[in-house]
């Protein structure tokens, strides 16, 4: 402290938010907490958001989100709807703050849930947050064909989309407002698991219906 | 925060000449004094101090001014561990070996307590040591991965400001998030 000029130089650019409580997370700058969150596994962010009200706020603003649920049909009813409500509310609380990566796995055996397609609204909410990377997985069957609610307008925002499907893929049709090349569709059909595509490889404004 | 008196190993460890680094930077074995928030002076090799972007830019801004650089946001205990990390990192600058570097980094975090890790993060952030911040944030995330809410709270010293009613409701409404969590 005997050298105030240096003290000022070294502390001016950073903002000394030294926490006065023992809360070590709350004392960290937001971008550091978000960096930690980016390394977390499935549902860890949900638990972190229940630690305190401050944690909830910082989790809601995180650009990295990863949720994974796998419900057996007999216990689906409550848990499913709770998860759906949680994720919808969570995404909407963000008020459009940018999402770097939204990753979710949604595996539910109940037909009722599949027909409801809750992930459509999650994807739309994520697009509303200008999501850069979508990594989504859900069960697909006869009733529940692949149709991503992504319009061509969103392609410029998305850098990477990645989907994984569980279950049998009998037929599927793609949202008619995006053009997919036949080659791409063939590539999708070839592999039931771990389907991966980069939207960058899509022909721009191409409207051949697969 | 520990006071200087009760941590005698700290100063001896840091001030003793490090032979590995001395050989690599033989031409400039200049030392820099850094003073922590709890008034401890660390004498470190210039090459180590230049790993701290904050200190580096301090010298770039005012090259002639010297002797002791105060680090008002940096307590001695985590700082000594940060220096330990940077000394290791410097070796890899001369001989880049990603596998060895990863191994050394994971050994570094493995032997640290939860408290050590959490205390080093603000220091690494303040001193702008990007590699260390990456390593620490990953390590902290690994340690709270799949843990209970209570564990996460005690890990970071978070005060639970939910009422017991709110908390009970959270648990009831988010049963899916509380399943298959590792035991504390």
UniProtKB/TrEMBL annotation, chain A:
Matches recorded under SUPFAM superfamilies: F-box domain (SSF81383)
- Pfam families noted in UniProt: F-box
Q: Enumerate the SMART domains for this protein.
A: FBOX (SM00256)
> InterPro entries from the xrefs?
F-box-like_dom_sf (IPR036047), F-box_dom (IPR001810), F-box_SCFL_complex_component (IPR053197)
Which species does this protein come from? Salix viminalis
The organism's lineage is: Eukaryota, Viridiplantae, Streptophyta, Embryophyta, Tracheophyta
Extract the signal peptide range.
none
User: Which superkingdom does the taxonomy of this entry point to?
Assistant: Eukaryota
Q: What is the name of the protein in this document?
A: F-box domain-containing protein
User: What residue stretches are annotated with the F-box domain?
Assistant: 22-69
Q: Which CDD domains match?
A: F-box_SF
Q: Where are the transmembrane segments?
A: none
From TrEMBL, chain B:
Q: Does the keyword Cell inner membrane apply?
A: no
Residues of the SKP1 component POZ domain: 30-88
Keywords of the record, alphabetical order, are:
Ubl conjugation pathway
The UniProt record lists the SKP1 component dimerisation domain at 130-177
Q: Which domain of life is it from?
A: Eukaryota
Q: In which pathway does it act?
A: Protein modification; protein ubiquitination
Q: For the region Disordered, what residue ranges are annotated?
A: 1-21
One GO BP annotation of this record: ubiquitin-dependent protein catabolic process
> Which family does the record claim for this protein?
Belongs to the SKP1 family.
| Function per UniProt | Involved in ubiquitination and subsequent proteasomal degradation of target proteins. Together with CUL1, RBX1 and a F-box protein, it forms a SCF E3 ubiquitin ligase complex. The functional specificity of this complex depends on the type of F-box protein. In the SCF complex, it serves as an adapter that links the F-box protein to CUL1.
- Subunit info? Part of a SCF (SKP1-cullin-F-box) protein ligase complex.
Query: What is the protein's given name?
Result: SKP1-like protein
Native organism is Salix udensis
Q: What is the lineage of its organism?
A: Eukaryota, Viridiplantae, Streptophyta, Embryophyta, Tracheophyta
């Amino acid at each position: 402290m005997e050298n105030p000029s240096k003290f000022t130089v070294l502390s001016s650019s950073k903002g000394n938010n030294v926490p006065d409580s023992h809360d070590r997370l709350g004392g960290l700058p937001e971008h550091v907490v978000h960096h930690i969150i980016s390394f977390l596994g499935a549902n860890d962010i949900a638990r972190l958001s229940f630690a305190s009200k401050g944690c909830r706020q910082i989790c809601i603003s995180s650009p990295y989100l990863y949720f994974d649920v796998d419900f057996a049909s007999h216990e689906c009813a409550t848990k499913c709807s709770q998860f759906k409500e949680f994720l919808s509310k969570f995404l909407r609380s963000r008020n459009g703050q940018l999402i770097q990566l939204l990753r979710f796995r949604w595996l539910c055996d109940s037909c009722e849930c599949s027909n409801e397609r809750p992930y459509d609204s999650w994807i739309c909410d994520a697009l509303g947050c200008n999501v850069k990377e979508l990594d989504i997985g859900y069960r697909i069957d006869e009733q529940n064909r692949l149709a991503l609610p992504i319009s061509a307008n969103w392609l410029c925002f998305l850098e990477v989309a990645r989907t994984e499907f569980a279950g049998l893929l009998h037929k599927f049709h793609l949202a008619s407002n995006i053009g997919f090349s036949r080659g791409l569709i063939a590539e999708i059909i070839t592999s039931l698991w771990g389907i991966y595509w980069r939207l960058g490889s899509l022909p721009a404004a191409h409207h051949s219906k697969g | 925060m520990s006071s200087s008196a009760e941590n005698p190993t700290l100063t001896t460890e840091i001030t003793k000449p490090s032979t590995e680094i001395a050989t690599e930077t033989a031409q400039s074995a200049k030392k820099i004094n850094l003073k922590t928030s709890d008034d401890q002076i660390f004498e470190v090799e210039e090459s180590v101090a230049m790993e701290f972007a904050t200190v580096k830019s301090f010298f770039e801004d005012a090259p002639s001014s010297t002797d002791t650089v105060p680090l008002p946001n940096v307590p001695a205990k985590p700082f000594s561990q940060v220096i330990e990390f940077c000394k290791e990192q410097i070796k890899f600058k001369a001989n880049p070996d990603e596998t060895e570097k990863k191994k050394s980094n994971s050994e570094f975090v493995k032997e640290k307590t939860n408290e050590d890790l959490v205390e080093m993060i603000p220091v690494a952030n303040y001193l702008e040591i990007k590699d260390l911040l990456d390593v620490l944030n990953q390590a902290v995330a690994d340690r709270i991965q799949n843990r209970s809410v209570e564990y996460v709270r005690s890990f970071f010293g978070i005060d639970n400001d939910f009422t017991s009613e709110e908390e009970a409701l959270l648990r009831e409404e988010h049963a899916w998030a509380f399943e298959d969590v590792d035991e504390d």
